[in-house]
Amino acid sequence: MPQKESEPKSTFGQVCLEYGQAILLAVALALLIRSFLFQAFQIPSGSMIPTFLEGDRVLVKKFSYGLRNPITNQIWVEIGRPERWDVVVFISPEDKSKDFVKRVVGLPGETVALAGGEIFINGRKIEDPHGRYDPLGSPALRNRAPVVIGEDQYFMMGDNRDHSSDSRVWGTVDFNLLKGRAWRLYWSWDPRAGRDLGERLRYDRIGRQVE
User: Fold this and answer.
1) Which terminus of the chain faces fewer neighbouring Cβ atoms within 10 Å, N or C?
2) What is the span of the domain harbouring residue 183?
3) Is 29 part of a structural domain of the chain?
4) Could you give the CA distance from residue 106 to residue 78 in angstroms, rounded to a whole number?
């Protein structure tokens, strides 16, 4: 009696289904990671020089301060709060379609003032290990009358003090606008260099931890 040929282990439709499931799983994992764990951001300006250069790409820990609704950014589970000198990515208080990256200088309840570029917290001068001032820059942003920071508000400044639009211009940032803490550079590309890869790619910055 002739033996019946065995059916193929998988049909074309089954293969397509398996690939489709794998792709959907990969997309779901990518969305999960981007929404709750890590998100990539590109640095568009020099407001954070020397910490960030224009063309840097940075990974941000979305879970640094809590788990948030990925659509509204409202906090679901709070994990922690920003500390002074944290580098934070947040939604612009003026334009919700834009993200900014700045450094936390003033915390809720504190009084912040600037005099000649020096930072005063609650009337006492503090050391500023990250600020950079341009010798030829305008002194307009170096002096500010005392500002009392409200509850759940943070006073942000760019490290490139004379060339940064920040809380000295548009006020404090609400905790609900924070997206996460900048963690590590994963790419650095000089947009003003020539076409040669060796000239444009800043190898020494890739992998650098944000401090």
Assistant:
1) N
2) 12-103+163-205
3) yes
4) 20
Active site residue 125: no
Omega before residue 50 within 30° of 0, cis:
yes
Residue among 47, 64, 164, 188 flagged as catalytic: 47
| DSSP result, 3-55 | PPPPPPSS-HHHHHHHHHHHHHHHHHHHHHIIIIIEEEEE--SSTTTTTS-TT
Rounded-to-integer distance, Cα 3 and Cα 39, Å? 58
The active-site residue out of 62, 64, 102, 167 is: 102
Q: Give the tens place of pLDDT for each residue, 42-89.
A: 999 999 999 999 999 999 999 999 888 888 888 898 999 999 999 999
Supply the pTM of this predicted model: 0.84
- Is residue 64 flagged as an active site residue? no
Whole-angstrom distance, CA of residue 56 vs CA of residue 203: 11
Question: What is the tally of structural domains in the chain?
Answer: 1
Q: What share of the chain is helix, strand, coil (3-state, %, to 5)?
A: 20, 35, 45
